[in-house]
From TrEMBL:
This is Tetratricopeptide repeat protein. It comes from Streptomyces sp. SID7499. InterPro entries: NLR-like (IPR053137), TPR-like_helical_dom_sf (IPR011990). Signal peptide: none annotated. Gene3D superfamilies: Tetratricopeptide repeat domain.
Length: 468
């Protein structure tokens, strides 16, 4: 980083500090050509010279100013044939050489890479069968080797083993990609991401591979889909579906901040191509509401859920499963954050009744709504067996240790505690703590919630040393 900053400082010593130069170098991926172009631009301005801070801000405003065009303005000060020093065309020399060697697929592959981020890209992403849509799978290995040989990308040791490609190169390649390929490239990028992001029907497990490596690539894909012309609703819907699955998986893993970041970015990008009432947009809005609630941003969570509920009602109807999902999502915000439990109970009863009619009483979605209802109605008058049938149904339908079962058992324990039946609740809550530690790990928010209830039970039984 220091060496890259020094290049800029040597070329334009009066334009800023070493730290400002380092920040620009980071933005440019510390690529020598890009540093030379940026330094040349800064050093040779006459009428109204920019500072390094101003240049860095301009690079970051990609929606207002093309960063590649800005870099290319520095080529005029390099001497000789400026066309050989343009960020927008330098890579073409290597790609043309690969084409002459019988590797035209290398160009298509690097265009696919330009759909994603300059962050390390897990290599399993390139093994999906959907890559056949742009590069025959039998040629992917050879095309990638060509890119590596020409230093257009590089390997990063794992696990997982990754590729890393300069952001300047990716932006330049994306800028020159033929318009008639934009839709196919985005669609393929989304399909390949979809093959590695967990399906929402499968519960998260702590043994699952880390999800964070895929976050920057999902966000970059959404950004590219809105930057490129010719990307249609179908391709954007696929990208949104990827973002939804990633946000759900991140949320279930307890990383609520990353889940919200993905959901909010998807909302911003998705509505540039799709209508605000498109099902994919509504689904990601529902997910944003859940993450906002978990992060304690309750007023935003309520507004987001009410927006989604209104859209669902208008698009799908009052009794549709999508609308009932919004009812369930809004209910805990009202019950626990805004002290409007009566409204929360009414919403979740609606979800239970609607899901029972549409899906059956023991469908996983119905079990979740029944778990909410048990939690919201717990109190001194709660019958000791109020949660027993729910827990039994969970054991039978999804199995012991399943996240839905653990939630039901925890809320059954909470209902028993609320009814002053601590001794009966104690073994149940202990089992939930053990199950949560096994399923989620010791630091997951759900494990911490189970421990908190266990501590409360022990304290109310006078077993203060254990409670501590």
């Amino acid at each position: 980083r220091e060496d890259a900053a020094k290049v800029l400082c040597d070329l334009a010593p009066e334009r800023g500090t070493a730290e400002e130069a380092a920040e620009i170098a980071d933005q440019l991926g510390r690529l020598p050509l890009a540093l030379t172009l940026a330094g040349g631009f800064l050093a040779h301005q006459v009428i109204s010279p920019w500072s390094m801070a101003e240049y860095g801000r301009a690079l970051g405003r990609s929606n207002e100013l093309d960063p590649i065009e800005l870099l290319d303005q520095g080529a005029g000060y390099s001497g000789g044939d400026a066309s050989r020093h343009l960020a927008s065309t330098t890579w073409e020399l290597s790609l043309n050489a690969l084409h002459a060697q019988g590797l035209p697929e290398a160009t298509t592959l690097v265009r696919l890479l330009s759909c994603w981020s300059h962050d390390p890209l897990p290599l399993p992403l390139l093994t999906g069968s959907d890559i056949d849509a742009v590069v025959p799978r039998a040629r992917v290995e050879t095309a990638l080797r060509g890119l590596l040989d020409h230093s257009l990308t590089r390997l990063v040791p794992g696990p997982p083993r990754c590729l890393r490609t300069h952001g300047v190169l990716l932006d330049s390649i994306a800028r020159s990609a033929p318009v008639d390929q934009h839709d196919l490239l985005v669609s393929t990028g989304a399909a390949l991401l979809g093959a590695v992001v967990p399906d929402v029907s499968r519960p998260w497990a702590r043994e699952d591979p880390p999800l964070t490596p895929y976050v920057p690539h999902t966000l970059a894909l959404l950004r590219r889909a809105t930057q490129w012309t010719g990307v249609g609703p179908t391709a954007m819907t696929r990208a949104m579906a990827c973002a939804l699955r990633l946000a759900v998986a991140l949320h279930r893993s307890g990383d609520y901040a990353s889940a919200l970041s993905v959901a909010q970015d998807a909302l911003t990008r998705g509505t540039q191509v799709l209508e605000a009432t498109h099902p994919a947009v509504i689904a990601i809005r529902q997910r944003a509401g859940r993450s906002l609630y978990r992060l304690g941003r309750y007023e935003e969570a309520e507004a987001t859920h009410r927006h989604a509920l209104a859209d669902c009602t208008a698009v799908f109807g009052a009794s549709a499963v999508e609308t009932l999902e919004s009812c369930a999502g809004l209910s805990p915000v009202l019950a626990w954050a805004l002290d409007r439990k009566d409204e929360a109970v009414a919403l979740v009863r609606r979800a239970v009744e609607g899901r029972t009619a549409a899906l059956g009483p023991t469908h996983p979605s119905t079990l979740i709504a029944r778990t909410y209802l048990l939690e919201f109605t717990a109190g001194p008058e709660t019958h000791p067996d109020a949660g027993a049938a729910l827990v039994s149904d969970c054991h039978r339908e999804v199995g012991p240790g399943h996240p839905i079962t653990l939630d039901a058992e925890l809320n059954h324990g909470f209902a028993l505690v609320s009814a002053a039946l601590q001794l009966r609740a104690l073994p149940l809550v202990r089992n939930v703590v053990t199950g949560s530690e096994h399923t989620y790990g010791t630091d997951h928010p759900k494990t911490l919630a189970a421990r908190s209830l266990l501590s409360r039970v022990l304290g109310e039984l006078g077993r203060f040393q254990e409670a501590a």
